[in-house]
Write a structure and sequence with these properties.
The protein has two domains: about 100 residues, Enolase-like, N-terminal domain (Enolase-like, domain 1, 2-Layer Sandwich); about 230 residues, Alpha-Beta Barrel (TIM Barrel), CATH 3.20.20. About 40% of the residues lie in helices and about 15% in strands. The chain is built from 13 helices and 13 strands. The strands form two sheets. Strands 4, 5, 6, 7, 8, 9, 10, 11, 12 and 13 form a ten-stranded mixed β-sheet that branches. A three-stranded antiparallel β-sheet has the order 1-2-3. α5 packs parallel to α6, α6 packs parallel to α7 and α8 packs across α9. The longest helix is centred in the N-terminal third of the chain and has 21 residues.
Length: about 350
Amino acid sequence: MKITDVKAYPLKTRTALVRIFTDEGIEGIGECSPMNVPVMCYFVEHALKSLIIGKNPLDVERLWDDMFFGTYKLGTSGTQPSCISGVDIALWDIKAKVAGMPLYQLLGGAVRTTFTMYKSMGGGSDNTPQEMLARVEQAYEEGFKAIKIRMDWKYRQDVNPAKDLEMFRLCRNFLPDDFPLSFDANNGYSVSTAIQQGKKFEDLGIYHFEEPVSPTNYEGISEVAEALDVPVSAGEHEYTRWQFRDLINVAKPDLLQPDVVKCAGLTEGKRIATLAETHDMSVVPHMTQPTIGNAASLALCATLPLSNRPHEYSGQRDDLDELFEDPWEFKNGEMTIPNKPGLGLTVNEKALESAVMDL
């Protein structure tokens, strides 16, 4: 079997979709980070495609080496690993289809195939506490069994901790006492403020405290994690096993949050998960991509005994579901991996064609 073509599609849904075609008619799909969809697609087709065309798609880890070390001088944080993610996921999709098994079986076999999903709700910096409460009330009515509110302060530090606290307090008071409610500062606090705020969140009953300080301040993350009882999470801004090694050893968060559409795909995601297990740490992935990215993330986490907390989910979207003949179903706050080969997703050609951006 040989790879005959690699195509990347910048979609209006803010999706960088990758398809890999083979000479035996089996194809795979993957997804890159949504941070800049046209740039991601250009990188796939002009930097990565030539490195794997004509090669055997089943040699996934060797192709990962070809892509990573063939482009590492273009930067190993951000665009390069995010684009490798899309190609790598598609290669694993092909490999599982050839094997005739769901991807999680190929990755090692499932500990679980049904996951509680938490509603990830961003834009808190632009919401009043009452507006965020209304969104939380809606998510609760939709059947979510866990929720996280995100601030999106865009690296502005300590803008309005009092407002953040009031927002969390209102939402916490509305939800049942045993309902998991988390808070994502999106790197918005100084170390001292994060510790003060975290202690107040603890008193209110927070489930986990995500990215309290700058992702580059490993020592600061460690100070916050050491000072608080609440689990502190980090990792969405790390892209390789080497970066996660340093995050674990220096920052010492309680929960690791790799993102398979950013961290160079499932191949590197597996290695990061092994690091986490070696340090007896739980993996709670960062994942805002509700279709391909979500499917790949859950396939990996299905194999991880220490990945048993609610998983991030931004919610089911009709514009994404219609891209596939067989979209996954979110029901009663949970998602179950379908028992189908590969990722369990089949592209709807007509819908895909109409969704491509006009560049």
